[in-house]
Amino acid sequence: MFRTVQAISTAHRQLEGGGFMVRRPFPSRGLATLDPLLMLDEMGPVDYGPDEAVGAPDHPHRGFETVTYLLAGEGTHADSAGHTGTLRPGDVQWMTAGAGVIHREMPSPKIQREGGRVHGFQLWVNLPRAHKMTRPRYQEIPRESIPKALSDDGLASVQVIAGDALGASAVIATHTPIVLHHWRFQPGAEVDVALAEDHNVGVYVFDGVVQVAGRDVSDGQIAVLGPGQALQLGSRGVAQALLLGGRPLREPVAWMGPFVMNTEDEIRQAMLDYQQGRMGSIPPQIVKPSP
Q1: Which of 53, 91, 116, 194 is the most exposed place for a label (fewest CB within 10 A)?
Q2: DSSP secondary structure letter of residue 97
Q3: Under 8 Å CB-to-CB from 238, ≥6 apart: which residues?
């Protein structure tokens, strides 16, 4: 049975972090969450001049995962657990905050110094109750390691960040079944995508117009799908979209800023732990200067 479109919602814009603009398809008035997915932000595309680029200075997380997927630019990260690294176009960082970390996400020193285009996504994935306080974990996957596949007609290509598509399987391990695909379409593309029937699924279009189950979904819109075992995608022109979803947790969600737990008491404890320094801090020397 093929899935159909149940609703289409348009992303809104808002400032985040140190003052960068995002397009946010959810949560929004049109779509609260896509259980187990909590939030999707499209960062840019924006062209910075020298000394203009901004990011997200030190901030805490607990109880969920952040997935950063960069399309253009260069970003650095560091955290209170001692991790540090650089993301370049096509790279993915899947961070399991779990019990809690202090995190810093910034444009690279080169982008800050010279400017340039920045474009990417950050997805928040809820953790089930049993894994809320798990030890923080990082999976950093360079673009060359992200599995890729082509449709039979060669007009649709996919990068499989999580889940499976067209015989390609993700290399990233997830706590619960998750789907995250980056689809690119050439004019006339048509492809059928197999999906687990028990998943909530949406398609966010960020370039052009994509035909989702026979309906046109435009740049900046997300289509929420009904039940089924497969999805028909296509395009009359050049277009790009994220297909995302997962098996719903169906658990209570208590959410305040960077903390996502199951109860209000757990949120208060997270705030207390952060305020009392139990999530640590990022040593100044952990971020090395760019050459």
Answers
A1: 194
A2: -
A3: 185, 186, 187, 207, 208
Q: Could you check whether the bond before residue 227 is cis, i.e. omega within 30 degrees of 0?
A: no
DSSP 161: E
Predicted pLDDT of residue 171: 97
Residues 6+ apart with CB under 8 A from 285: none
Q: Note whether 222 and 202 are within 8 A (CB).
A: yes
Residue with the two structure tokens 């309906």 = 215
Two tokens, residue 135: 């030890």
Domains along the chain? 9-145 (2.60.120.10), 148-246 (2.60.120.10)
DSSP 223-258: EEE-S-SEEEEEESSSEEEEEEEE-------EEETT
The reported pLDDT for the residue numbered 285 is 57
pTM of the model: 0.95
| pLDDT score, position 204 | 98
What token pair was written down for 22? 């995002």
Residue 72 has phi, psi (to 5 degrees) of: -150, 150
Place of tokens 């004019």: 187
| Length of the chain as a residue count | 291
CA end-to-end distance (rounded Å), the chain: 54
Local structure of 130: helix, strand or coil: helix
Buried b (16+ CB within 10 A) or exposed e, 139-176: ebbeeeebbebebeeebbbbbbbbbbbbebebebebbe
Provide block-wise average pLDDT over 10 residues at a time, the chain (291 residues). 97 92 95 97 96 94 97 94 91 96 94 96 98 94 97 97 98 96 98 98 98 98 98 98 98 97 98 95 62 39
Residue 133, exposed/middle/buried by CB under 10 A (0-12, 13-18, 19+)?
Answer: middle
Q: Side chain identity at 77, as an amino acid letter?
A: H
Report the pLDDT value the prediction gives residue 83, as an integer from 0 to 100: 85
